[in-house]
Amino acid sequence: MTIQSIDLMALAPTLVVALGALVALIAELVTRRGQVAVGVGLVTVAVAVPFAVAASGEQTLCSGVDSACSYVVTPLSVALQVIVLVSTAVVLLMASADIADRRVPGGEFVFLMLCSVSGAVLIPATNDLVTLIVALEVVSLPTFALVALRQGESRAAEAALKAFIFSIASVAVSLYGIALLYGTTGAVSFDQLAAAAQASDPTPLATAGLVMLLAVVAFKIAAIPFHGWAPDTYQGATVPVAAYLSVVSKAAGFSALLLITGTFAAWSEMWAPVVAVLAGVTMLGGNLVALRQRLAVRLLAWSSIAQAGYIVVPLAAVAGSVAWGPDVANAVVGYLVAYAAMNLGAFAVVAVVARRTGIVEWGDYRGLARRSPGLAVALAFFLASLAGLPPGLIGLLVKVRVLVVPVESGVWWLAAVMAVATVIGLAYYLAWAAQLFRQPDVDERPVTAEQATGSWTAVVSVAACLALTVAFSVAPSLALGLVDRF
Amino acid sequence: MTSNWLLPALLVVPLMAAGILLVAGRRAERWATWFGVGVQSVGLLLTLGALAEFKRGSAGSMQLVVEAEWIPELLVDFRLGVDGISLPLVALTSLLGWCAAVYTVRRVPEPGRARAFVGLLLLLQVGMLGTFMALDLILFFLFFEVVLAPMWFLIAFWGSGERRRAANTFILYTVLGSVVMLVGFLLVIVKTGSADMVELAGGLGEQMSGGAQLAAALLILGGLAVKTPMWPFHTWLPDAHTSAPTVGSVLLAGVLLKMGTYGMVRIVVPTLPDAMVRIAPYLAAFAVIGILYGAMASYGQQDLKRVIAFSSVGHMGFVLLGISTLSVVGINAALFGNIAHGVITGLLFFVVGGIKERTGTTAFASLPRGLYASAPRLGFLLGFAAVASLGLPGLAGFWGEFLALVGAYHPAVPEHLYYRAMLVLAAVGMVLAAAYFLRVLRRVGQGPGSEKTMDDVAADEWLSWTPLIALTVVLGLVPVLVFEVTDPAVRMVVESVAGALP
């Protein structure tokens, strides 16, 4: 038995984030100012990004016996890590306003968030099932506390409990799945599992194992029918936490899905139809239910369920001449990048509006263009992007990009479902966007000075998302070719 | 090649102008409409520059081409150019945009907000011009989509009646259509590995297998048919027209509908000739049903705007019939019909908008009779546009329809007898069209009106309508102005089909 040598540089992104979490907690204890913790969080992210980029191509945590490594950094994983880290920075900016006026304890908030992020940064580079499931749990567990961390809101505790129970159930199912896979193949390392998948067709037991393993992913990305927790949890949590769950936590789920499907690429005939059904039901269901939502956050919750359906379309359409490969993965990542920017942007505007005016129903956004034209134009642009309607070009182009895959592989029904889902989605995004530009009601709510202050950092988060979404729309290769850059 | 900046400038100028209006804030309300006229005038000058630079001798090939790599991941290049097929439509778009801007100066529809209104018109202009200049399938699709949001806002915010519902119907129908079209495009791109429209038309598309061609052609035609609109996909059109503000109706009928038939001639016919030859007879049938249906439905309408909307279905039927013959005459007729319909129906909607502004309604039941007496010039223009629309020889509307019938007499597709039957039915439709417009004129124009009780055509209306009136006459008398540009390009298109004919 040899002692594992650990390449700290390869693991640096995760370690930096974990360290940052501790520093943030201590910094707030010492200074008694929550904003300091936010600052530490932002610095942590800024430091972690270059480490992540530099680690491309490295591997570590290798076993001396069969030289299987548990941590392998590929360009794909770097791209996913960068998405997670940058999104986290935006969420921290969004949350800093709540922290500034002590609605949320800053130190704990940043600590919990960075703990969760350390898992999300770990996932894309994991290379065996055990590390993967541990990392997924590292992402999930702090989020329950984050959801509950909303003072004076009884719904928050309920929301946290709901997410917790769904999570526990899905993890239990997945662990059972892993056990079955280990039992049939004798391996947990992705390399060995891939080799085993290459060598033989899936046995019924292995099929059951793989499908059960996908349950935890479906929970994380809130795919129907594993979505039940998402709307209530988003609503119960503060808006920044909801944004975190809908982007960073989901990105962790997509990373896991890419890893699992990539490992079992040889069995795509077995898992692709399962993913396809999930994708189809998720796109249609998410959009249909979103049509009936009145609360802005719940509408975004259902919208992000539907968007998750679009994101997995390339994986769902792996069939025939199209095999799992960089092309498919790039399509997923391209959509994910665009989704992160436009969805975080929408949440950021909702957060600012809720703080300034107390408005929570999208119907009450009427006349926002008159009161705060910048916010209204930004939100309209994010909604257009989510809908895939110009001027939100990037939203349209990533939809085109994922649609290429089912057309190429001839999974026509999926292309048709996506087309219908897109049209349904258009209806509610447009209705909301239109509301912004209508003449305001006569009895306009007065904005109190206290409410209006302290949100400039949140406005910065809106501006950052807007800048990214516009940049992606002008130069779509930034998003669609992200993986090739590392 | 020093004039390559012309086409990008045609897109960049209105786009930048819209951006300026966006950031200018509320102060801009006062000068927005004049600013719109200025921008559209610049656009018109740029178009005149493009017309001057365009070499008529080689109208069959792409000119003023600009290329830049844009999204290699999707095989999309930013590639613009014009040839004899697209140039007339670019000119028509610039002209109608200018007319709309001039009209808007004194007549921003309720509830005002001139800055947003003008900004949306400029964005619309970008999408319309881009569609006609794009030489890349995905780029074409993007511009095709760009027009949707501005038009939706124009109808939903400045429209009348059930405007919100009409706007939603418009956008949901057309988006469903364009997604279907997109799937067809992607199929072509996946099978051929190219999104370059010139390359695809030049023989690359023909290399696709018969089945793939047929599938792609049906998908693309299906999507374009919604926009055209081809019977039975026209149901969004009457509501949209009835609810839209005047300039919205003008641009919708004058330009947006053309994007559908343009796409057929530009993309489907030359890229997928084998499939097109198989589909053409069915297309002819749909076209003729549209002609007859449009005529009969128009007769039954109780609203002036709806009459014109259904008449558009009929006119577009003639354009489709021309395309379906796959012959030089027929496709030339289709392109001419596009332009003529844009000019004449644009004028019709302007005049009807003028009537609505004065009387507050377009419903026959509440419209006062006797327009000839109460506002003689406005009455004359309504009559002029109406007879031009029903195809009176000597005016622009005649050539497109007449030559479509000639094309159907000598179709390039072998089913001669079938096409002649279609010809007869279409001719019946032409006669029926006369009936509904004469009914309109009798109902609105004639009757006991009191002398000069209504404000007649104002100076700014004359200014914005005169180009359309003049073109209606000029194109009717000298149709060769258009044909000399379209014909070489059409011959190229027909040549690419020739190999697919049995």
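Chain A is about 75% helix and 0% strand.
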